[in-house]
Amino acid sequence: MPSRFSQLQKLTLIHWKSQLHPVLKLVSESCPRLTFLKLSDCHGVTPDTLTMLARACPQLHSLDVQHSMVESTAVVSFLEEVGPRMRKLWLTYSPQTAAILGALLGSCCPQLQVLEVSTGISRYSTPLQLPVEALQKGCPQLQVLRLLNLMWLPKPSGRAVTPGPGFPSLQELCLAGSTCSFVSDEALSRLLRGSPNLRLLDLRGCARITPVGLHDLPCQELQQLHLGLYGTSDRLTLAKEGSPLLTWKWCHTLRELDLSGQGFSEKDLEQALAAFSGTPGGSHPALCSLNLRGTRVTASTVSSVISSCPGLLYLNLESCRCLPRGLKRAYRGLEEVQWCLEQLLTGPASAS
Question: Residue 117 in contact with residue 143, Cβ under 8 Å?
Answer without folding.
Answer: no
